[in-house]
Records
---
Amino acid sequence: MRPLLRLFLKALGILVLSGIIGFLLMTAVYLLPVNGMKNHVALATDLLLSGDEPYIIKGYPAFRLDMFTDSEIMGEAIYDGSESIITKAMLIPYKDYPDVNETSQKLLAALRGEDTPQLHTKARYWHGYLTVVKPLLLITSYQNIRILNLIIEAVLAWMLSLLLFRKIGWGASASWLITWLFINPVSASFCMEYAIMYYISTIATILLLSGFVSNKNLPYYFLLIGIVTAFFDFLTYPLLGLILPLTVWLLLEIHHSQAWPKNCLIYSFFWLLGYAGMWAEKWILSTILTDQNVIADAISTIRFRSSRTAYDQRISYWEVIEKNLNVLGNIPLVLFSAFVIVGFVIIFIRYYKKQIRKNELLTFLLLTVSPFIWYFVLQNHSAIHYWFTYRTLSAFIIPFFNCVLLPLNEHRKDG
């Protein structure tokens, strides 16, 4: 009991320290001048004129870009109000124009310097992405950030695929490539909002495969992944930040699968502690340091986002699942469903023939249900923002296909 208590207390210390570091980072980035950022954002005027919901390929929601949120992010980055640095760092305000419908148009109005008495904030989020976006916009344009995303994401995909092949085998590498395609690397690189969890998930897994994390420090590692996710992410598909490295860890420990279920629960608990704890620290800090009750706003939002209504209408859990699956489009959805059905048949044939251990099957199946639990808890959010929350299903794909393709790893025991 004492080692577990010591582990938990150390985790709480890391969590508190992370909140302090997050506060300092957000405060520091608001010291940067914004004129250069405004000039670079203005170069994206043509893109902003395309509206809040442009499509790379029309008719396929998976190729829908979220210019609504990216416009919010840029609006936050260029805001230069008279509030104190701490107030801006905690509330993250940007100019709102109630008579303008689209957020991209509101950003253009802010760039033109139009007056507005109204500000909009989402103080319950850390908005940690601004620690990267503001410096980038200081030196380059939004279009160049897209190109940079495209290059970095491709390099990370290649690095992770290569490491998985070398350390584990073909099955793990192929499972990642299927997941990568499902995330949709094109739209993920063209939207700053979509790119965040891609970076966190892949970098965390690459570090794990590269041997930077010892087994005894894994609880703290997953704690830090949760903390970083809460700091940077805008509630897109955060679950991948847990499930991708956790699945890879299972494959690295394939010869010790007896301990899989227990350790999975422990690491998941620490990830959740870091994720929820970092969120809570933001609410507390913002409430203490500003004149807004951010704690009350956060609690109200949690109730709304976990409600069983969307657009003032009652929704069922199965409607939420359907909306997220339909993002794929008819033909990809049929192919995906067929692969899943065949995959389940293969898994249970192998289990019947005792080619897969009970602990292994149980653990993989537990991981595959995680996105469906997520959808159940956040039904409102998952129904309204289905065009990007569908990526939460990648947390099903990575453990599922690794379970199906597990025999392809067996020739690599030197990992």
Note: Strands lie at 94-95, 119-120, 309-310, 313-314.
---
Amino acid sequence: MKPDNHQKTANGRYDFNLAEFPICVFSRVNKEKHKSLEYTDRIKGKKLKRKWTVTWDSKYGPPTASTNNVLYELMQIWKEDNFGSQKIVFHSAYNLLKRMGKIDKKKKQGKAQRLQLWKDIKILRGVVIDARNSFWDNEKKLYVHKNFNLFDEFETYEDELDGKMTKKQQQNLFPSWIKASDVLYQSVKSNSLFDTRYNKEFYYSLNPIQQRIFLYLQKVFRSQKKNRRPLMEFASQIPILSSSEDKIKQTIRKHCDDLIDKKGYKELKRYYFEKSKDGWTNICFVRNGKERFKPAINPAHLSSCRSPEKVEELTMKILSVCGDKKSTNYYRKVAASKIPESLIISAIEDVRQAKLEHRLRGTAGAMFTYLIKRTAKVESVSI
């Protein structure tokens, strides 16, 4: 049965780097032999090699599928707080499990679920990422090497760990929280986020590999009609831990077919495998021409005009990325249009990210115009 993709909740938001690089292990591994997860590639158009290495606390083991869901939900809670501080307040294990659809009125909070959730929190706290040439320093105009944690600390209470909450906790006087690291916080504050265009009900209806493919495609489809990747490179990016090309193809076919046929993911029109000139296998993803899922629109956006100050502010934001002063009048029209501000900001950040990753085929202004015209068509808005 296809999931209900209507707006029960708002669209999700996720970090570009977390969508692109692997964090979790989705298959059983020997903890003694596998103490890290590595991904390497080369920056397109450059000879520069990128290397992303994830290590973890040996006491708790690697991040798994359940850890991946906890990380995603923490990002959504953070988004609802407008990324106001480094602390992500999730209140309690019960609240976090309920948000992820693990609890309903007929089911009580199970001890196993609670223990797994706290284990996942501890796993996330212990994750260390060594990112070589994976972050672009816009001031220095070069790629940098960073070694960082995703999260610095978390705080809860002994009663919470036992699944027993005092009246004060129930009143949220002492909510549980986890603190994002400086690097992760700086990343989200620099707007390195994208709108997934689907709500979390859809996301949680997917299995772990489908979730990773979905997030990756939602990221690249924002600016690309077709995405082509070396097969083995893409497999390590999910990750699909196999050295057999045939098994990797079989896994991708299964999950992509389910995404299209059973899950109702229509952004993906088709996919196929091809041989490159050098003899290796590529995986190609083709985006559907039409958007399947429209983000929720605040009716107030369609009936009200922005103030002159807000129009000028948005225009300056567009110019700061596009840098095309000759098109200032057009950008001012966009800023004054009935396109929701959140979608204009999203287009700005897509262009900014494409510039950082050196993915622009033309000018920044051309890419922004393309994204805005596509958005205006989807929203049935004239500029």
Note: The chain is about 45% helix and 20% strand.
---
Amino acid sequence: MTHRSKVVEKRWLVVSEARKLTEERGSFTVKELAKSAGVPYTTASDWVTRLVGEGILRVVERGAGRRPARFAYVSKHIPPISPCEKIIALVDERNGVVEVCHKCLSIGAMSFCKREYEKAGGIVVSTRVEGSWLRIRAKLGSSDVAVGEPPLPSIGLSEAKALEDVVELGVVGFKGAGYSMLKTMPHADGVLHVESSVREGVVYGRIYTKKLERVVIAVDDTDSDLEGATWELALSMANKLSEIDWVEFLSHKVVSLYPELENKTGGNFASLVEFGVPSQKVEELIDRVVDFLADNTKSSETAVAVLRGLSIHPRLREFGFLAKQREVSLDQTQSVAEYVGIEVREVVGRRGVIGAVAALAFADSVQEALEEF
């Protein structure tokens, strides 16, 4: 059984009655509050003094002679806090896919939204949570989405349209989810504009956000026997590039590869980082990555591999798992890269190409990235 202290109960009663009297009459006296709350005059007086000190009540008119002081409840407006810190959209027009990325303050809000978007279906293909990001993979296009009381979902993605520099998202929300869309999403970074209408308790919203391209850059062979770590250098590189206003840093993953190689400095781990950037800035991003690694690597064999878009080719996936199970050659690696369309850059050497290309296979799964065979 839940017990509430008598002091808390009394406070709730007095504050509730003070609010009601203020709404009805504009102000009240201690005597009127005591009568409304059904408490002794001295009790009401003590609470009024305390609540005025806390800023819950204010003095409307000071007492003079036989005229009693009058008080009023202070209505406090609590501005809505947006759990969505940022909303961006990654577009892969060649494959007809978009990934809506919500950077969120709350794991509870992310988990709730993940479940609801999955239940709603429509254009949504998959959802996942990575770090502070909720990632919603969907098809470009539109689909009817039904929301409402349980068991129906409360929010859904009904449309995704890629325009020239902007992505237009159609979102449908019910009750709390609809309120969130109306009141909090406009405050998220990356949101350019929100339009909404309400019909029969359902909010229909259109969210406009920046149109970006996903660029996955994998790196390997940056350390020596005595110093350096590929995961650390890749993360430092991503953190540095995230200072650029057109770069969105999305994730950093460590990828476990075949551990029995003769030429390895540690446990044979490559790393990859995900960015969202405007398509016209992709080459500049890659150049900056290469320059950073060239200036900071401890190896003479460092290389990077670059995957653009949201699709991971089955042949690349097959190669990635093969590289976890046995040693693969540079010729095999280059053949896969050419077939799949992966750009390879030899930063200061060639050996790192193998781990970098293999690591790209696991861009969408941190669990598979670390899986060992």
Note: The chain has three domains: 6-73, 84-211, 221-370.
---
Amino acid sequence: MFKSLQLKILVSFCILNLVACGTLGIMVYNSAVNLVTSTIGTQAKAVIEMARNQVDTEALKKVINEVKRLENDPQRVEKIVSMPEYQSIRTKLTTYRITNGIKYLYTMAKQDDGSYMYVIDGFPLDYSGSQISLPGDVEKEYYEDMDSAFTTQRTQIGQLTFSDKWGANISTYVPIFDSKGTFVGIMGADFDASEVYQILDTNKKNIIALTISILFISAYFSYIFSHYFLHPLRQLTDKVAKVRGGDLSIQVEVTSQDEIGQLALSFRDMISELQVMFEQVSHLAYHDTLTGLPNRRSFETELSAALSKKDQAVAGAVLFIDLDQFKAVNDTWGHDVGDALLQEVARRLVKIIFGYGMVARLGGDEFIVLLHKYESLSTIKSIAIQILESLQPPITIDSYQLPVTPSIGIALFPEHGKHPQELIQKADIAMYSVKQHGKNSFAFYSPTLEMPK
């Protein structure tokens, strides 16, 4: 077809480079998406399973049966919403959704005709916006993972999805069973992945642009100097194959200033950008995007490592910190000011805890501290007092004086627990006891805090 060897080399190399770079771009993008989905999905699974365990299944069954019974009643919604069981479950779901930063949290059941209906949503009882799903509302769109959760009665973690209406989300569905093991329905949660989606979308465009640039550069230089390219081009092609296989650790040496050198330099830059992209995704998986602090996943990993140390004499503490007036700040001055306030609180906490342990942000206005080792309880008390004093004066943000104080709950290990979730929960209980007794203080966990009042 082509009589010119130079043209054959040009066409062959262009096709090879297009396939290699295109395949590499698709592979890297899909790998990044899978990494994000797996990381956030695993964390989401643990969070929603804990939410499911807080639901009274017998009360939920009663609500479901009443929704079905009142199917043709024009006042069905009002009657269902007035049920004490409905209000109790919805209040718990609302609290858990807000505490864990879940975008949407809801329960669903299967109707006799095979359709899926919403039962209880995780919005506040006084919420009347358009995003809420009312009791008996039927899901008109088909979601494969939701259908699989109903069909298999097993937990399903969805893929990263984007729509103009709902934005970027990762959905997770877990089955709900009653005390006898009978399937009742599912609990669904949608986790906001907008920031991750934006980064992936930007990098996808960069990969496409870089792939096209490399293609044109390689075509130009191979056309002019193809007879010089054969040997070094084979070496570069071998490296492309390794990268396509997922190896981003290869070193590309630029040994000349000619076109081959330029191509090698461009390829090396592409690998560097891919490495940066993977580092960004990895950072997002373990850090809070607003404050830059470690997130819940990172904190639990660090706490698990501390609890698994063989030296049982090493003691530590978990401090659960909640900002008392943060909601008023958001409502009065807006979320931008609230975000700036959280960043300033994070900086102050890091300065105080430096050398003692780590600070993480759980979400919303909640922070958590891990003290790896302490000499006595007075050390912990001193740190708690420093935190209180650092936030005692109003914090100035954009000329606004923001009054915000912390409530601090403290759990010690190993005496208060030997598992991350147990310690976090007990520190949370201690923190709520501070809330109930005037806020702006600290308290150590005690079993008496869990006794019925």
Note: Residues 251 and 318 are 44 Å apart (CA to CA).
